[in-house]
Amino acid sequence: MGGFELRWFVRVAVVLMMAPQILGWGKEGHYVICKIAEEYLTEDALAAVKSLLPDQAEGDLAAICSWADQVRHHYHYRWSSPLHYVDTPDFLCNYKYCRDCHDGHGHKDRCVTGAIFNYSMQLSQGYYDLNSEKYNLTEALMFLSHFVGDVHQPLHVGFTGDLGGNTIVVRWYRRKTNLHHVWDTMIIESALKTYYKRDLMLMTQALLRNITDEWSDDVPSWENCKKMVCPDPYASESIRLACKFAYRNATPGSTLTDDYFLSRLPVVEKRLAQSGVRLAEVLNRIFTKKLSVAAQ
């Protein structure tokens, strides 16, 4: 890493320490997603990822998986806030890129699926162009790794009217919160406390076992993408899950306890696993492009 990039990352690291509460899957969820992804990277992709990671990450993709949340409120990165989600019309329970991918001012392509297309393109075009300084590839990797996770959180493809569950005030057991935060953070926190001794690595290992055992028959369909990246199907899955599981029995003022937690946890855990497998798939495609071209 050069001097400029190092100074840039140090400045951002200072911002991280001052950042308000983390949004989007929560720090724990994004960490698990990137840990799973690391297990499925090819040798070439892993080498490429390590070469782009900032020094402070010490070669660990998971260490920077929450960066995009941690800087989104800093004035240098406020432009990125709409890239974490894509809202859909209320109660339709479907997603369409042309209709839904825009920010609050109507600017097209400014949503989580648009961001995934953009940053995967930047990495693909920029990594093998040794003379290109058009893109900040470290930043592109950090954004892409985060946004692939976000599009799998059902309420990041929630209804426009309630801002993806953010305006639906509920109680999670005794704690007052909102429905979006329940799905970002609280289901995972409760699972860590109840089943995993508060240990993220135990949770990650359990999900990795499920990928090879319980979900092994499903994994090929998770990877059924014929392009470099396929965020639109992932968003469509999320809004269907939001309608079937997130919004159901979670009306404003309701108290969510064991019934909700135990029935929704399997959905959350599978989405974390899918995110990790699919993130690895995207990075493997991007960073084996040179080899495929050379083989032609």
UniProtKB/TrEMBL annotation:
Catalytic activity of the protein: Endonucleolytic cleavage to 5'-phosphomononucleotide and 5'-phosphooligonucleotide end-products
CDD domains: S1-P1_nuclease (cd11010)
EC number per UniProt: 3.1.30.1
Any GO molecular function: metal ion binding
Protein name: Aspergillus nuclease S1
Record bears the keyword Lipid metabolism: no
Species, as recorded: Anisodus tanguticus
GO biological process, one term: DNA catabolic process
Lineage, uppermost ranks: Eukaryota, Viridiplantae, Streptophyta, Embryophyta, Tracheophyta
